Amino acid sequence: MTSDDLPIGRRVARWRVRRSMTQQMLADRLRRSKSWVDKVERGVRTLDRYSVIQELAHVLRVDPEVLLGQPRSTPTGTPDGVDDIRAALARYDTPQAPAQTPEELRRQIGHAWLTYQHAHYPQLVRLLPGLLDAAQGAQSAELLVQAYRITSSLLVKLGDADLGWLAADRAMAAAGDEPVLAATAAVSVGQALRASGRDRLALAATLTAANRMGTPPTRPALFPLGDHEVGGLCRDQTPRQPHDHRGGGAPRPQRAAGEWAVGGTLLLQAALAAAGCGDPRRAEELTDRAAGIAAQLRGYDDQHRTGFGPTAVDLARVVVAVLRGDAGEAVRRHVTVIRREAWRRLPAEYRGAYLVDAARAYLQVGDLRGAARALVDADSVAPAEVRCRPLARTVIAEVARGHPAPAGVARLATLVGLTR
Asked: Which intervals of the chain are annotated as region Disordered (predicted)?
């Protein structure tokens, strides 16, 4: 009989012995009786509540899935193939990948971005090792930075923030002295550092990169407004070049709209990091700076895959409120922003990830039904956001503790291998 075939009580007993604990010691730490522990280990008492399993796992210093006998790589867990991505990142020689033209590789990277934006993470896990090999052999800084950025974003999603940071750091190295490429790589660095709990480092990295990008002039309007603007995601307008009114009236050199969007994205990452550091005033200031940029960016080609625009700023304000513990404000802003047309046109990955954060806000105000709605909506928009991300599983577990748990979340808990 393998460890996965054991009854949960036997697994509890095994881990208790591994931790050099007696039944009485375990009972004391759980604030329960020795008889209760004995009955659990012998299978006389059934562990049918996830909250109790989670408490046991905490005391035994293991993941709840270990006690449940759930394998880590399941269709509703981390997809198989992450080790292949790790191996691709560990190769320092030029891989012997089939030669591809830059145009072919660019098409593959575009496909990978679309796969990511549609939250098809298992498919992307299978694509990335070959894409990394091809990009490393292409000797193109732009394409290599993009390949590393996609890799970093996916690894952060799947809960491997340290490996995600490695990929982001590789993107920074590949960018070299190219300022815009370095700025896009800094976005990935910030995301990976925040995911690993290093908010102060993330704040320093993203704020430094944002300041290097500068701030667009506010007069005249940098980019034209358009009725079809969708949160900074449209592609059919060309930015106007403002004139230099300091003399001569000649057009002055100006960054493209997509480059300002990278700067705005860096400011939002810095704001989230500041909120994570417990600095709400700086978080608000940085978000306001990003809002100033977003107000001028209407209808641009989002070639750097930032998704930046007014809607992105509004969503960031919600997440900042969650991070600083002001869940009431977060919920109020959330209800408003998801009613807008621009919200529905954001990529599935963006909406799904945000809805998991919104569920956290509802949890903070004690609204289990609101949290359940957000999670169910996230699952309908981007199932992999809920079923593959460790963060989402944690939120599901919290909501599933309710008595009774909302039906939609009870279903999700079963899908991801959690039982109440």
From this structure: 233-256
Least confident of 132-146, 202-216, 218-232, 384-398: 218-232
Q: Is the pLDDT of residue 33 over 60?
A: yes
342 occurs within a structural domain: no
Same domain for 87 and 192, yes or no, is yes
* Residue 324 and residue 363 in one domain: no
Q: Residue 43 phi/psi, 5° resolution?
A: 80, 5
Distances (CA, A) of 214 to 179, 222, 251, 254: 11, 14, 18, 11
Q: Give every CB contact of residue 273 below 8 A, 6+ residues apart in sequence.
A: 190, 193, 194, 199, 200, 202, 203, 206
| Domain shared by 149 and 43, yes or no | no
* Total structural domains within the chain: 4
pTM above 0.90, yes or no: no
| pLDDT of residue 23 exceeding 90 | yes
Question: CA-CA distance, 164 to 174, in Å (whole number)?
Answer: 15
Share of the chain above pLDDT 90, in %: 56
Residue labelled with tokens 């869940």: 327
DSSP code of residue 246: T
Task: For residues 97 and 220, state if they share a domain.
Answer: no
The answer to whether residue 278 is domain-embedded is yes
Domain containing 256 equals 199-243+250-335
* 303 CB-near residues (< 8 Å, 6+ apart): 258
